From TrEMBL:
Catalysed transformations (reactions): ATP + protein L-histidine = ADP + protein N-phospho-L-histidine
Gene3D superfamilies xrefs: Histidine kinase-like ATPase, C-terminal domain, Tetratricopeptide repeat domain
Single GO biological process annotation from the record: phosphorelay signal transduction system
Pfam families documented for this protein: DUF5112, DUF5113, HATPase_c
Name of the protein this chain belongs to: histidine kinase
InterPro entries: DUF5112, DUF5113, HATPase_C_sf, HATPase_dom, His_kinase_dom, Sensor_HK_Regulatory, TPR-like_helical_dom_sf
Uppermost EC category: transferase
GO-annotated molecular function: protein histidine kinase activity
Enzyme Commission (EC) number: 2.7.13.3
UniProt keyword annotations, A-Z: Kinase, Membrane, Transferase, Transmembrane, Transmembrane helix, Two-component regulatory system
Sequence ranges assigned to domain Histidine kinase in this UniProt record: 474-697
Organism: Segatella baroniae B14
Residue ranges crossing the lipid bilayer per the database entry: 384-407, 861-881
């Protein structure tokens, strides 16, 4: 068809060249003189009628339609374009469609615009495919049509506020392709300079580039193209309106400005001058639309210099000079909006409100879903054919369904014996077994994690013991210098070279040394004894029934007293120390037996809670008073009243130990936060003691295995509908309240209050935005801060919020700012309101609707073809729809049964999956994936493969986690074992040292007191004492060197130092307890290249200067503080930093402790 139309159009009438020449001249006058353009086009049109030259006639009609659109004679333009649409020339038909697009753009007929746009795109595509068949003239017209299409589309998108499509359309124009068509090139330059099409990094860069485009357009237009000369002057005037922009452009384009300023007016009045010149040219040219636009620009210029009366006059002229202007509602809306601003500037609020209300009404009228006329017409024209096609399709569907029903009945009778449930039964059986295995892996992993946590606790305790042992060894080593001094004194006495007085002084010094050694030995003895009696926990999960069975075996003591013991069976599992739990139950049961009279009863039971198990021991004994219950766990004697008839006396040690065990649990881990112990009693009626322990890991493997067979397999899952916009969110509800307050405030005339309410509403909406995007940067503002407002970005990115509230806020803010003459706030809020209103009112189904209307034209032939194909398909239908699939199904069914056998085999899951994939891929034809029963089998196979994949992933995950967790547990246990061995050896060494050497100082003192002259005996004893002391201490030192502290960077109290994290926290914990501080006051006093100095303040601690000096020495009041010195000493040794240390001094009667620790380095080795 296209080729034929081109061939027909190529036939040459007698005056073809003359007609083409007239049309070319008319085209050239488009932007020079509208009267001439129409007159010449009319001559071409009449000659074409006489000659029967349809191509020339269509071109002439398009030229005349262009003039009618410029003069806003839209009805006449529509009539001309309708006549042009009867031509066979596809290029001119394309141009007619584009002119219809321009006509719709001017009248805000948005739906019709898309109709013609889609039609134009289809024509362009078809013409491009056969472009080689076009004549030279047609190719020229086609180039014009393509550029004009993008320019008209860009103009439309610009006026409806769709910035991205606007820029996209302009980018599709290649300036080099249209350079020979000056009019189109000028149109391109103007659109680039006037329509925010430049994308730049800064505002000044953008306006400079736009200025250059407009200046080039002005220069090239000259006198030949007054339309573009006037347009460029008008846009240049708008660019120079802003004072800052004007100064910038004048500074950087002084010669160009002088070129524009032909009348040499003041630069402040240059925008007015350019607007007047533009208006003069447009009035001469005769484009009604552009004349009104020029008046609007001139009004803006007058308003910018404060001449509001002249501004109003210009705007009224724009509306009144030609009533045709009301056919362009977008332009009228912009004029009304500007009138509301100017009237507000002169405090004429009634007129300002009237024009703003008209402006808002026009926004409503120009919504994209208001123009339904074209849609109704097209629906009328297609309804008949649609009905026919629907009837034909319904008949075809009924016939096809009937045929399928017959074939399906035949197939079902053959396959009745095979059900989907039976095929899935092996899968359910395998899943049940697999779930058991997975649960076992989970439980094993949880058990390892528990062991790891407990091992960590044991390791921490071992590290604390080890650092304590090292501190003791340091104390031991500090004795050796005293022994050496004593040996020296004995040697001097043995020489007998000094006077008796000097000798006496030496004997006295030896006595002092021996006293010091004895004092150190006493400290060591006291320290070793402190370790005795410390509680060690072995945490595990165990059944309480095992302990209850042990308690039951001890009924003898209850029977002896003729007291009944009732132990209720339980299935509860707890996580605790099994031995200590038995101790607590025994203690509380013995206590109940002790205070229960003959014939009484003691009951033991376990009660399960959500995350704990409560073990209760109750009796029918004598009971206690309220005061006794309050202090029952305190360490104080409790004597029974004589009136009870009982003669027992209790010091409460057992109950106190039970409470201590519970407190110890609570310090171990957050898991034991449920641990409590309590007592309830009523005098004369009995008592009830109870304590709580956390639940252990309950193993439901058997139950899970049994219940797994009850699981149903569902092939289809219903889709969850999308949530509606969360307009019930608290932030949005509060914002809505403030939006209502904005409206009420404007009604009252309290405009400043309106803006404050609007600020509150914006803040709440922004807070809601942050709940979705915590690090988002696109937030609503009162004035312009970005090129694209935040709410426009939100709408384009489909952020779910209440845009109705945003519109209310922006509109009321614009009204308030208008009344207060806050022009920047008004412009920004009004622009945002307009853009968002148009976006919200747009019908997103426009393009889909248009395409559907065009597709409906082809559905007639499709329906006929389908009916014919249906008739031809009846004969092969039997084979294609029934027998072929039956054979395939039987074959695939055998493969599925074989897969089920593989699934239940003893192979690994990976091997099973590989075999099943190979079996299925080898025999399965993908084309049968969605056909009949084969689709069901495919679904079964996919379920099997999915289940195996999930099982493999879970198995790999848990086994990997198990390996990593086991390795970590082994590492911790190895380190703990190493420390435990070292601590045990050190315990033995210290015990040996204490027992073997502690009596020698006394024996030496005794020798001196009995016979001072027996220096040889004293010397022999001192030497032996030293040898023995060195031997035993050296054994301990060898063990000390075998264990070293692991230092790493540790961030603590605002600085990063080198050390063991556990030991550093232990150090500060000791300082907190030793200073009896509720919270430890630690600060970084100093930091240099190598060290960090921490300063610890003990408030309300009274020490002397001497006590401060001795605080971390063997002479300290608290020997635990020697551990602090040892921790710092070990850090210094490991990091080879001699500056590490800890000391105390007084500052304003407060004890200040300075701790010097090695500073950590970064990755580059820098401090």
């Amino acid at each position: 068809m296209m080729a034929l139309s081109f061939l027909i159009s190529a036939c040459s009438p007698k005056h073809k060249n003359e007609i083409d020449k007239l049309n070319s001249i008319s085209y050239a006058y488009h932007y020079l003189n509208l009267d001439s353009a129409r007159s010449i086009a009319y001559r071409a049109y009449m000659m074409s009628l006489d000659e029967g030259y349809d191509d020339g006639k269509a071109e002439a009609l398009n030229n005349m339609a262009f003039v009618s659109i410029a003069r806003m004679r839209y009805a006449n333009a529509s009539k001309l374009l309708l006549e042009a649409s009867s031509a066979d020339n596809q290029v001119e038909l394309l141009i007619s469609d584009i002119l219809n697009m321009r006509l719709c753009q001017r009248q805000s007929h948005n739906k019709d615009f898309y109709v013609y746009q889609e039609r134009a795109l289809e024509r362009m595509s078809r013409i491009q495919e056969e472009i080689d068949l076009l004549t030279a003239r047609q190719k020229f017209r086609f180039r014009y049509a393509k550029s004009e299409f993008h320019i008209v589309a860009a103009t439309y998108y610009y006026y409806v506020g769709q910035h991205r499509p606007f820029i996209a359309e302009l980018k599709k124009i290649n300036p080099d392709d249209i350079a020979k068509d000056t009019a189109q090139y000028l149109s391109y330059l103007y659109n680039m300079g006037a329509g925010d099409a430049i994308e730049g990094t800064s505002h000044q860069t953008i306006i400079q580039k736009e200025f250059e485009y407009l200046l080039l357009c002005y220069a090239m237009a000259g006198d030949r193209y007054p339309f573009w000369r006037a347009n460029s002057l008008q846009s240049l005037s708008e660019h120079l309106l802003d004072v800052n922009d004007r100064k910038f452009l004048i500074k950087n384009n002084l010669q160009s400005i002088k070129y524009l300023n032909v009348q040499d007016v003041s630069y402040d009045l240059l925008p007015v001058n350019l607007a007047k010149r533009s208006l003069k040219i447009f009035r001469s040219f005769g484009d009604v639309y552009q004349i009104s636009g020029a008046y609007r620009t001139l009004a803006s210029c007058y308003w910018s210099i404060g001449d509001n009366r002249s501004s109003i006059l210009c705007l009224e002229n724009a509306l009144s000079r030609n009533s045709a202007i009301f056919k362009a509602p977008d332009l009228v809306a912009s004029i009304r909006e500007q009138l509301s601003v100017v009237y507000s500037a002169i405090d004429d609020k009634p007129n300002s409100d009237r024009n703003r209300n008209i402006y808002l009404d026009l926004q409503e009228q120009t919504r994209q879903d208001r123009q339904l006329e074209a849609r109704a017409e097209k629906l009328k024209s297609s309804v008949v054919w649609l009905n026919i096609m629907i009837i034909g399709v319904v008949i075809m569907i009924v016939f096809l369904v009937g045929l399928l029903a017959i074939f399906d009945k035949m197939r079902q009778s053959k396959l009745a014996a095979t059900s989907l449930d039976s095929l899935l039964s092996p899968l359910r059986e395998w899943k049940a077994k697999n779930d058991v295995c997975v649960e076992e892996l989970k439980e094993k992993y949880e058990e390892i994690q528990e062991n790891y946590a407990i091992s960590q606790l044991h390791l921490l305790d071992s590290k604390k013991q080890n650092i304590e042992q090292r501190a003791k060894i340091s104390l031991v080593n500090s004795v050796l210098p005293f022994i050496d001094r004593m040996i020296h004194e004995v040697e001097r006495l043995s020489k007998n070279e000094e006077s008796d007085d000097v000798k006496e002084l030496r004997y006295q010094y030896i006595s002092e040394l021996l006293d010091t050694i004895n004092r150190y030995n006493n400290i060591l003895t006291q320290w070793i004894q402190l370790r005795q009696g410390r509680l060690s926990l072995h945490i595990e999960s165990f059944s309480l029934q095992t302990l209850f069975d042990i308690i039951n075996k001890g009924q003898m003591k209850f029977n002896t007293k003729e007291v009944t013991l009732n132990v209720k069976p339980t299935n509860a599992v707890v996580k605790a120390d099994k031995t200590l739990t038995l101790f607590m139950i025994n203690t509380l049961a013995d206590n109940s037996c002790k205070f229960t009279s003959q014939g009484g009863k003691v009951s033991i039971e376990a009660i399960e809670g959500n995350d704990y198990v409560e073990i209760s021991i109750s009796d029918t004994g004598c009971g206690m008073t309220h005061d006794q219950v309050e202090h029952v766990f305190d360490h104080k004697p409790i004597k029974d009243e004589k009136r009870t008839g009982l003669q027992y006396k209790s010091h409460g040690f057992g109950l106190m130990n039970c409470k201590g065990i519970i407190e110890k649990y609570k310090k171990v881990s957050q898991l034991f936060s449920v641990c409590t112990i309590s007592a309830e009693s009523e005098l004369g009626k009995g008592s009830r003691f109870s304590f709580r322990l956390p639940k252990g890991v309950v193993r439901f493997v058997l139950a899970l295995f049994i219940s797994s067979f009850a699981v149903e397999v569902h092939a289809n899952l219903s889709k969850i509908p999308e949530d509606p916009y969360p307009i019930t969110h608290p932030y949005l509800l509060k914002a809505n309240v403030y939006a209502d307050k904005c409206y009420e405030s404007n009604k009252r005339g309290t405009y400043e209050q309106t803006l404050r309410y609007a600020d509150s509403a914006r803040y709440l909406i922004n807070q809601y935005y942050y709940t979705i995007y915590p690090r988002g940067k696109d937030v609503m503002t009162a004035t312009e801060t970005t090129v694209i407002p935040a709410e426009i970005k939100w709408y384009n990115e489909k952020l779910k919020t209440s845009y109705a509230i945003i519109l209310d806020i922006r509109n009321e803010s614009a009204v308030a700012a208008l009344a207060l003459h806050h022009w920047d706030i008004y412009r920004y809020n009004n622009n945002v309101y307009t853009q968002l209103f148009r976006l919200r009112s747009s019908d997103n189904t426009l393009r889909t609707y248009v395409k559907r209307m065009q597709i409906s034209e082809n559905n007639k032939m499709v329906a006929i073809i389908l009916l014919v194909l249906l008739l031809l398909a009846i004969l092969p239908a039997y084979y294609l729809l029934y027998y072929r699939h039956f054979l395939y199904y039987r074959f695939y069914l055998e493969r599925v049964n074989l897969m089920n056998d593989i699934l239940l085999s003893e192979d690994s899951d990976k091997k099973k999956l590989l075999r099943i994939k190979q079996l299925w891929q080898k025999h399965f034809n993908p084309s049968h994936n969605r056909i009949g029963q084969s689709a069901t089998l495919v679904h079964v196979v996919k379920q099997i493969e999915k289940a195996l994949k999930e099982s493999i992933q879970l198995d790999d995950k848990y086994r990997t986690n198990l390996e990593l967790a086991s390795d970590e547990v082994h590492r911790v246990e190895f380190e703990n074992a190493k420390l435990h061995v070292s601590n045990s050896i050190l315990d033995n060494c210290l015990s040996s040292l204490k027992h073997e050497t502690m009596y020698y100082p006394s024996r030496i003192m005794q020798l001196i007191d009995v016979d001072k002259r027996n220096l040889s005996g004293i010397r022999e004893l001192v030497d032996y004492y030293k040898e023995l002391y060195v031997l035993l201490s050296a054994q301990a030192m060898r063990q000390i060197h075998a264990i070293t502290m692991r230092c790493q960077p540790v961030s603590i109290y605002g600085a990063t130092v080198l050390g063991d994290p556990d030991m550093l926290h232990y150090l500060f914990d000791i300082l907190k307890k030793a200073g009896k501080q509720k919270s430890l006051h630690v600060s970084v006093a100093k930091t240099d290249r190598d060290y960090v100095v921490y300063r610890v303040l003990w408030s309300d601690v009274l020490l002397t200067e001497e006590q401060c000096r001795n605080l971390f020495t063997p002479m300290t009041e608290n020997i635990q503080l020697m551990i602090c010195r040892q921790i710092i000493r070990d850090i210094g040794e490991v990091t080879n930093s001699r500056g590490c240390g800890i000391q105390a001094h007084l500052d304003n009667h407060n004890v200040v402790i300075d701790i010097v620790i090695t500073k950590a380095k970064d990755k580059d080795g820098k401090f």
